[in-house]
Amino acid sequence: MTDAVARIHAAFADAGVTGRLHALDIDSGEQLDAGADRPVPTASVHKLCVLVTLHERAAAGLLDLTEQVECPPAGRATGPTGLAAMLDTARMSLRDLAYLMIAVSDNAAADVLLRRVGLDAVNATTARLGLGRTLAVHSFAEMLGTVKEDAGPEGARALADPRVITRLRALDPARTNRSTPRDMTRLLAAVWRDVAGTAEHCAAMRRILGLQVWPHRLASGFPFDDVHVAGKTGSLPTLRNEVGVVEYPDGGRYAVAVFTRTAHTAATLPAADAVIGTAARIAVDALRAKALRSR
């Protein structure tokens, strides 16, 4: 494992990022730690916590996932996908809003669900599951609002200035939604092992996570037709994250959480995206090799 950790750090360095990673064999409990307990801003990765809370409350009979919700355009969180990019009033079920929240990382859909379950409920869920270093402190609209405020009057153009980046509260885990890579793999394992809720609800969550449309981060490390990757990304200026589960045809299941930062302010950095898949592949290969040696 020591060699794999060194290779992961080398991959991060080659891509020009600093990275934190935790990988977990869901069934054996074997793990790989590359900065797994360092607090990190979660960005949209925290939508996974909202998803689990939504299904937990549905299982308890506190809400119906087929409940229809009117979603007017006024007051929507901004974003390039889903409701956040739409112009007109939409009406859809809670479970379809959850699909948009995860599959295309729709900020507006996430906030509709967050208002429905409540921030305190999200934190109660993560606490119940033993995620002691995971905390939601604001909605996704509020998080984006801090970026706008901190950028100042020049708006998005100011985010090209590294000095502006240093003052963004959304990038400071002490002042925004946060977790650790280890907490996130623990949460994923709870979903895959039917511990985060009933078997029916965990299966529904796994389905939605498997429908994420972005192939350029975690999934890029596993370009095989018979290997399934399910996950949730998170992005902010200089920050690229993804957490997910990699499933092999032999039954192997591996939860991986990768959180990265770069000094470059460009929105498009293919190497910074791809290293998430590269690092995850190194970690999963090491876990699989150790499992084979122990047989």
Topology:
Elements: H1 2-15, E1 17-25, E2 31-34, E3 40-41, H2 47-59, E4 68-71, E5 90-93, H3 94-103, H4 107-117, H5 119-128, H6 140-151, H7 162-165, E6 178-179, H8 181-192, H9 199-209, E7 228-236, E8 239-247, E9 253-262, H10 270-293
Antiparallel strand pairs: 1-2, 1-9, 3-6, 4-5, 7-8, 8-9
Helix pairs in contact: 1-10, 2-4, 2-5, 3-4
Order of helices and strands: HEEEHEEHHHHHEHHEEEH
Outline the low-pLDDT stretches.
Answer: none
- How many DSSP helices? 10
Question: Rg, please?
Answer: 18 Å
Strand order of the largest sheet: 2-1-9-8-7
Shape: globular
Helix content: 40-55%
Hey, roughly how much beta strand do the residues contain? 15-25%
Beginning-to-end CA distance, first to last residue: 17 Å
Total beta strands: 9
Biggest sheet details: 5 strands, antiparallel
Q: If you average the pLDDT, what whole number results?
A: 96
Overall structural class, as computed from helix and strand content, comes to alpha+beta
Provide structural commentary.
The chain is α+β, with helices and mostly antiparallel strands and 295 residues long. It contains 10 helices and 9 strands. The strands form 3 sheets. It has a 5-stranded antiparallel beta sheet, sandwiched between helices. The protein has a two-stranded antiparallel sheet with strand order 3-6. Strand 7 and strand 8 (239-247) form a beta hairpin. The longest helix is centred in the C-terminal third of the chain and has 24 residues, at 270-293. The protein is globular.
